[in-house]
Design goal:
The complex is a heterodimer of chains A (99) and B (167). Chain A is an all-alpha fold. Chain A is built from three helices and no strands. Chain A starts with a helix and ends in a 13-residue tail after the last helix. The relative contact order of chain A is 0.13.
Chain lengths: 99, 167
């Protein structure tokens, strides 16, 4: 299995995530697109770790997962707080950051 | 075409199709379900790469914990109706064009990069829990401990942010 296939797969997933973050207005969907991008990077790191027969990259994937979990906890708390203030998760309403 | 290649293409089609479903579906709950399916496909890819620890952690942490959190928040906000206002088609077109341009630019860069790596299908033991644990606790102890501090601060931050009004 050439490494190019994994590169193209990860790149496709990453670009789909970028498109999702640019296209949607729902803050939660934008968050999920960011998770998609993180997973694309994880997959590519795992593929390179297999290619070079080095397990350090898989440790990096593990740390990316840790940081993603922390990020989701804080981000969803912020989204819940915003929803409680303005009763919407539309990012266009939040463009002035002032209530 | 052996069984591994068939599995690779099946998982690839599943991952990309479900990722498109995340972006395109109108209902946020459907997006979450598609994202869970994408994570399962990526876990299948990890298994094909013989990264067993990552496959299991991906299912437990992402598909298990994080997605349940997303689903919980969506249910809490009662967002499961298709009431999301859409961006204008011009903005959507701009998003698709910029994402596709990024895709094309990086593909052009990769195709000139002369990468000769081949992922051999014979089993190696770098993805096993024992090997990863030894590497983690031998070379990466400090980042591991720092990530525990990060987790603690994230937990405290989430609780402080999510509290009812403080005054």
């Amino acid at each position: 299995m050439p490494i190019q296939y994994y590169l193209f797969l990860s790149l496709a997933l990453f670009c789909i995530g970028v498109m999702g973050a640019l296209m949607r207005r729902n803050a939660i969907i934008i968050f999920m697109s960011i998770e998609l991008m993180l997973n694309a990077v994880n997959l590519l790191l795992a593929a390179f770790s297999k290619m070079y027969n080095d397990s350090a990259a898989q440790i990096f994937v593990f740390f990316i997962m840790v940081v993603a979990a922390a990020e989701v906890a804080v981000g969803l708390a912020i989204i819940v707080m915003v929803y409680r203030k303005v009763h919407s998760v539309d990012v266009n309403i939040l463009n002035r950051l002032k209530h | 075409m052996d069984i591994l290649q068939i599995l690779f293409w099946l998982l690839t089609i599943m991952a990309i199709g479900c990722a498109l479903g995340v972006v395109l579906s109108r209902n946020p709950v459907n997006s979450v379900i598609f994202l869970i399916l994408t994570f399962f496909a990526i876990s299948g890819h990890y298994l094909l790469l013989n990264a067993q620890f990552l496959a299991i952690v991906n299912i437990i942490v992402y598909a298990g914990a994080i997605m349940v959190l997303f689903l919980f928040v969506i249910m809490l906000m009662n967002l499961n109706a298709d009431t999301e206002p859409q961006k204008s088609w011009l903005v959507q077109l701009a998003g698709v064009v910029s994402g596709g341009t990024l895709f094309l630019v990086i593909i052009a860069a990769i195709s000139r990069a002369n990468l000769l790596g081949v992922i051999n299908t014979e089993t190696s033991n770098i993805g096993l829990i024992k090997v990863l644990g030894q590497v983690l606790f031998k070379h990466y102890v400090l980042p591991f401990e720092l990530s525990s501090v990060l987790f603690l601060s994230a937990m405290i931050g989430a609780i402080v942010i999510g509290k009812k009004d403080m005054e």
